[in-house]
Design brief:
Length: 100
């Protein structure tokens, strides 16, 4: 079933998300710590995959039409649409499209 989730909620569920500080001296990290280990991650910064709704290989960034279909107000880069098994649906999934 297709679900719409805030990217932060998805990151907490995704098995590829991680937070890595790359340089212990400066405590800097790629993409402010939103990192991705998926081999098909579209965005790489300083040799590390970056977790974004628009670059996730497991879903896609929700646009205005998607948000409208789910009945929520669109915010750029805030929501992702992913396909999950119905038995994995819970309150963290936020919204689901009826009939999917």
């Amino acid at each position: 079933m297709k679900v719409l989730m805030p990217i932060n909620a998805w990151a907490n569920r995704c098995g590829y998300f991680f937070n890595a500080h790359l340089d212990p001296e400066t405590q800097s990290s790629a993409n402010n710590g939103y990192n991705c280990r998926h081999s098909e991650c579209e965005r790489i910064e300083d040799g590390v995959g970056c977790c974004h709704a628009w670059s996730c290989p497991l879903g896609y960034e929700a646009d205005e039409e998607d948000c409208e279909a789910f009945g929520v107000e669109h915010e750029e880069s805030e929501f992702i649409i992913v396909d999950i098994l119905p038995e994995k649906f819970n309150e963290n999934c936020m919204w689901r499209r009826e009939g999917t």
